[in-house]
Amino acid sequence: MLSYIVRRLITAALILLGASFVVYLLTAASGDPLEELRTSNNPNKAALIQSRSDLLHLDVPAPLRYFVWLRGAAGCLIPFANACDLGKNLQGQPVTEQLGLAIVQTLTLVTTATLLAIVIGISIGIITALRQYSALDYGVTFMAFLFFSLPIFWAAVLLKEFGAISFNTFLKNPEIPIPVIIAVALVFGLIAMAVAKGAWKGRWIAFGATAAVVAAVMFYMSLTGWLRTPGLGPVVLALSGVGVAFGVTALSAGLKNRKALYSSLTTVGIGVVLYFALPALLNQATFLMMVILAVVAVGVGVAVGYFFGGYDRGQNMRSAGLTAFLMGLLITLDRFMQAWPGYYDATRGRPIATIGASTPNFQGDFWAQGLDQFTHLLLPTIALILISIASYTRYSRGSMLEIMNMDYIRTARAKGLSERTVVMRHAFRNALIPLATVVAFDIGGLIGGAVITESVFSFTGMGQMFAQGLQRVDPNPVMGFFVVVAITALVFNLLADLVYSALDPRVKVKS
Question: 107 in a domain, yes or no?
Fold first, then answer.
């Protein structure tokens, strides 16, 4: 294993050297960095031209200039030496500093969208594969192709118009019209009917129950102005936690494993008790504190699952640990909701932002700052999810269909294994193998940035840095962008190969 990794890293380094040399020459040949100054009427034009020539080493031929750049870039390989030098841009700013700002903006913008697209897309794809040729399958297929064909700039502009401008206006008087309540309730009812299995009677019951619940919730939200002063409260928190406990147990252990179910429900009870005990601590929250609390919550859940015992403590621990984590997320969500009215007032009634990553000069505690970042990331995240989720849905559906028709799945069913065991333990893991390559490539694109989305929502990320570098014939930012993206792509392709061996024991990485 170790020798295989070393060989792959050496090969990757050679590929990186060759590719960076080609990219540098292409960038140098793409235009003249001095063209803007040559056509200028500035009286000190000659001095400015000489200064920029010295800054970019333009007196050196491009092939040799690459090795000047490479000498500075090699310093990035020495940790903690502060010797990394990727040159400067046309404004004299070090590229390493520009990269640091751009990477933060890009990761802030795209990471959440990509993770949600992966989780939601794979889940929907697997569900539709298990319900092949059903109304749900046809509906999801139609929506996937629709979202996949949407121009990202068009979707982003529509989101800014209706998801920010119109919604902010609606929040001033958040009364939901009765026709809208009826329409939304009918849509959710139809979705529930498509998801439901069995005879038509059961499907109509699912339609009616879902539509009635959605209509009641929306009417309550409209009547009480919940969107202005949101919150879950202990009752909704407890009911949601019980639903989470049943769902997690059904997926991870099966509802027949009563020990696992009781472990999860006990964890929910502990979470409800802590909901009343933690407010004073959460008022002083920091990011590190929340991470520590998340680790403690999972530890408590795992401990509860262990002490319940039974024939398979591992299932208890997994179910209770995951339930504890999700219960912690619900408590965190409720605390953010409690901070919403103050943030609404601080933004003068326009909380959903349309540009930028944060409100300039905005001051607030952990919860207010979190809401500020959330409202700025909400629309671009939705735009990226709508486009990305389609591909993951199609890939995961196709992979799952192929796996479910294999002989070993038929054998597992013939042995009398439950459908949950067949799907989760035998099919799901193998269905993820082809997706490892897709995810690895997408991670490289993630770091590269979403150029169009960054432009529409005014994020100065990696994509904008690359595009502006090309437009201005500014080679050093382009090379900085290339180095980061190339290293990320090579590393994650190596990780994809290692994930193959973890998902499928038949795949071995050999020296």
Answer: no
Q: Which of 15, 89, 105 is nearest to 479 (CA)?
A: 89
Mean pLDDT of all residues in 277-283: 89
The pTM for the full model equals 0.81
How does DSSP classify residue 283? T
385 lies in a domain?
A: no
Of 117, 126, 223, the C-alpha closest to 177 is 223
CA dist 368 and 340 (Å) reads 8
Residue type (1 letter), 245: A
CA dist., res. 259 & res. 147, Å (int): 42
State residue 187's pLDDT score. 92
- The number of CA neighbours under 13 Å toward the Cβ of 180 is 9
Do the beta carbons of residue 295 and residue 229 sit within 8 Å? no
Q: Residue 150: how many CB atoms within 10 A of its CB?
A: 16
pLDDT digits (tens, 9 = 90+) for 35-47: 777 777 777 878 8
Calculate what percentage of the chain has a pLDDT beyond 90.
Answer: 23
Give me the pLDDT at residue 445, please. 67
Q: Which two tokens stand for residue 404?
A: 């479910």
The Cα 415–Cα 360 span in angstroms is 63
Q: What percent of the residues of the chain are helix, what percent strand, and what percent coil, each to the nearest 5? A: 75, 0, 20
> Quick one: average pLDDT of 174-198?
89
* 451 in a structural domain: yes
Tokens of 122: 């794979």
**Total length of the chain:** 511
Q: And the tokens for 267? A: 């964890």
Instruction: Please give the Cα distance from 385 to 369 (Å, whole number).
Output: 23
Ramachandran angles phi, psi of 509, nearest 5°: -95, 120
Strand, coil or helix: 243: helix
Same domain, 95 and 7: yes
Please tell me the total count of domains within the chain: 2
pLDDT in tens, 191-240: 888 888 777 888 899 999 999 999 999 999 999 889 888 988 899 999 99
Quick one: 16 exposed, middle or buried, by C-beta within 10 A (0-12, 13-18, 19+)? middle
Q: Answer whether residue 376 is part of any domain.
A: no
d(CA 12, CA 18): 10
Position with higher pLDDT, 2 vs 248: 248
The first and second tokens of residue 318, run together, are 């997994």
Which residue, 196, 224, 252, sits at the end of a domain?
Answer: 224
CB–CB of 221/177 below 8 Å? Answer: no
Nearest CA among 52, 10, 170, 2 for reference residue 475: 52
Q: 224, 250, 282: which is the final residue of a domain?
A: 224
The residues facing 94 across adjacent strands are 88
Q: Is 468 exposed, middle or buried (0-12, 13-18, 19+ CB in 10 A)?
A: middle
| pLDDT at residue 145, rounded to an integer | 84
* Domain of residue 49, residue span: 2-99+444-503
Q: What is the pLDDT of residues 381-433, one digit of tens each?
A: 888 888 788 888 888 888 888 888 888 888 888 888 888 788 888 888 788 88
